[in-house]
Design brief:
By secondary structure, this protein is an alpha/beta fold. The protein has 10 helices and 16 strands.
Length: 288
């Protein structure tokens, strides 16, 4: 297993998220780049992120730079913006606008400075499919959060649907992460068991999160490691908890060389703190 020494690149949209809960509404910086990038940095791993934003929103990147994250951002005509409607454990989303897809040249600009790559697309065209094809030759461990490839957008509303671009994302990946619904949709799409999927795409570890029911990690040889969710005393906002979990898991596996069961428990503790609003706080990410 390759150890992260130089740093990790995180690729995907850095977003403006509007959170609409039962009794409040607010804007904050979001996206896998934000939550995973901060998590890596807080574990002592240099983090470099690649995103496209509208020039008028470049000022928001200062929140990431304050966490000592290096940002490779290019100008787009607009910034990716989501609305998250949260009711208890349920979340409905709208995608109001999208930044330009991240292309191969942008990723290549920082490849020589990293020894791991975390792909966090938020919709099927967040990363240019041509860039994904080139990553097969990158000789880097690649960690893929599949969420963006299990969505479609119609009239700005986000619906479950597996994208044909998922194959291009899976081919270079060594570790993938999905929630339970995403995983089942993917297995139905390919008409395979998880073991068959991992064998076909040469995936070493598949991380599946199941919310309050914990989750599991399966290795390519079929071994499964279940983990329990950590208690959450006062849930505040679950946004970003999956991103925090996956980044913390990767740190444990590729930096600290921790066995899978211990890595799961450590990541679950940090994700629970995120849900409680005590890890990456609204004060740190809030926008006005």
């Amino acid at each position: 297993m390759k150890i992260l020494k130089k740093g990790i690149g995180v690729v995907g949209s850095t977003t403006i998220d509007k959170i609409v809960a039962e009794d409040q509404s607010y804007l904050k910086l979001g996206g896998v780049t934000t939550y995973a990038g901060i998590t890596y940095r807080r574990h002592g791993i240099p983090a470099l992120i690649v995103s496209n934003l509208a020039e008028r929103d470049f000022k928001f990147i200062e929140k990431l730079k304050a966490e000592k994250i290096e940002v490779f951002n290019a100008a787009s005509d607009q910034t990716t913006q989501f609305v998250n409607y949260i009711r208890g454990d349920r979340r409905n989303q709208e995608l109001l606008q999208q930044a330009y897809p991240i292309d191969a040249a942008q990723i290549h600009s920082m490849i020589h400075r990293i020894d791991g790559l975390h792909l966090g697309p938020l919709h099927p065209l967040d990363i240019d499919p041509a860039a994904l094809s080139l990553l097969r030759e990158a000789n880097l461990p690649i960690f893929l959060d599949v969420q963006g490839y299990t969505r479609k957008v119609q009239n700005k509303k986000v619906y479950p649907s597996v994208s044909g671009h998922l194959t291009a994302g899976l081919l270079p990946a060594q570790i993938i992460k999905a929630n339970g619904a995403e995983q089942q949709a993917i297995l139905n799409f390919y008409q395979m068991s998880l073991t068959e999927l991992m064998t076909r795409f040469k995936i070493e570890e598949s991380v599946v999160t199941l919310g309050e029911n914990g989750g599991f990690v399966q290795t390519r040889n079929g071994k499964t490691f279940k983990y329990a969710a950590q208690p959450v005393n006062s849930p505040i906002d679950s946004t970003g908890a999956g991103d925090v979990f996956f980044a913390a898991y990767i740190v444990s596996r590729f930096s600290s060389q921790i066995p899978i069961p211990d890595a799961c428990r450590s990541a679950a503790r940090i994700a629970a703190r995120q849900v409680e609003g005590k890890y990456i706080t609204l004060n740190q990410l809030g926008l006005r």
